[in-house]
Amino acid sequence: MTLDDWLNLAALILILIGALLCLTAAIGLLRFRDVPTRLHAATKPQVLGLILICLAIALSVRSWEVVAFLLPIVLIQLATAPLSAHMIGRQAYRNGTIDEPGLYVDDLGDSRRTPPAAGG
């Protein structure tokens, strides 16, 4: 087998693993019941799956232009997924849809008693 064949095989395996991770993220969104576990399912395997798929595309095409195109996609995904999960989790806490007795640490407990515009 030549180097091209090995790189194509690695790309195929990476796409398969990335697709399976994205599938598990979708299944986790449907199966999990509460907001924190759904957030973990929506962010962690999905981001890793996207990174693996982008890496597979870069290995398959073998072009610096493609790598330059895929790098911002990965960086934007790494920047936006945790931020969106944080905002969704915070809003779920404020709405009262999170099981508060099940929380080990409640960092937002004091901010809930203080109105947001009070400066505290």
TrEMBL record:
<dbReference type="InterPro" id="IPR005133">
    <property type="entry name" value="PhaG_MnhG_YufB"/>
</dbReference>
<comment type="similarity">
    <text>Belongs to the CPA3 antiporters (TC 2.A.63) subunit G family.</text>
</comment>
<keyword id="KW-0812">Transmembrane</keyword>
<keyword id="KW-1133">Transmembrane helix</keyword>
<feature type="transmembrane region" description="Helical">
    <location>
        <begin position="42"/>
        <end position="61"/>
    </location>
</feature>
<dbReference type="Pfam" id="PF03334">
    <property type="entry name" value="PhaG_MnhG_YufB"/>
</dbReference>
<feature type="transmembrane region" description="Helical">
    <location>
        <begin position="67"/>
        <end position="85"/>
    </location>
</feature>
<feature type="transmembrane region" description="Helical">
    <location>
        <begin position="6"/>
        <end position="30"/>
    </location>
</feature>
<keyword id="KW-0472">Membrane</keyword>
<protein>
    <submittedName>
        <fullName>Monovalent cation/H(+) antiporter subunit G</fullName>
    </submittedName>
</protein>
